[in-house]
Specification:
The protein has 202 residues and is mainly β. The chain is built from four helices and ten strands, in the order H-E-H-E-E-E-E-H-E-E-E-E-H-E. 9% of the residues lie in helices and 52% in strands.
């Protein structure tokens, strides 16, 4: 019975050494990740039930250029969409190619992940800050460093009924060079801006 309800009944208090984790294997226990075939490496301190999990100084790596170092609490599994997360992100680094290589199940997203062409030269992304909320409705507060410059965010992101992502909040830039994004190479140089955002992306 504990195995059948392992999210609520199985407790852990462990310091996990670097271990390989395949979502294909997890799918045998939980259909929620069926169709996700990515492999990650994970380490750190984990405590509590899977339905009320806390991690301290966790590190997750994916491919060669994606790494997350964070402490977080996650409440509500196995229903990922209704799970609440609070995460202190000490370091999150990735590149466009790693993001677009993730093949999500069609029931999660009905099209491949594709960042805008204007971000083709964005290079390495590095984020430090925190995330609070649910998978489809959360607030990102922190600093994002890119090859284009630095952005500070206090941004709410929500997925609406039309499956579009709505953005609302504040963005501040520092030494930000948007030349390659907007295509006005001769007119716009490094700039500092404070912006209020209210829009959507589909």
């Amino acid at each position: 019975n504990d195995f059948l309800d392992y999210y609520n009944k199985l407790n852990s208090n462990t310091q996990l050494q670097k271990s390989k984790l395949s979502f294909t294997d997890i799918a045998y226990l939980d259909n929620a990740v069926k169709g996700l075939h990515e492999t990650i490496f994970i380490e750190g301190g984990f405590k509590g039930k899977l339905s009320d999990l806390r991690a301290k100084n966790a590190e997750i790596t994916y491919k060669e250029n994606t790494k997350l170092r964070a402490s977080f609490s996650l409440v509500g599994l196995p229903d990922l969409k209704k799970s609440f997360i609070y995460a202190d992100i000490y370091e999150f680094t990735t590149i466009k190619e790693d993001i677009e290589s993730i093949k999500l199940p069609k029931r999660w997203m009905n099209k491949p992940i594709a960042l805008p062409e204007s971000l083709g030269n964005i290079g390495h992304l590095e984020y430090t800050g925190n995330l609070t909320g649910f998978l489809n409705d959360y607030v990102a507060y922190g600093v994002l460093q890119t090859d284009y410059g630095i952005l500070s965010t206090d941004l709410g992101i929500k997925k609406n009924s039309a499956q579009d992502y709505e953005f609302r909040g504040d963005i501040h830039t520092e030494k930000f060079n948007p030349q390659d994004i907007v295509g006005l190479n001769s007119l716009i140089k490094e700039t500092n801006l404070s912006l209020k955002i209210n829009g959507h992306y589909n």
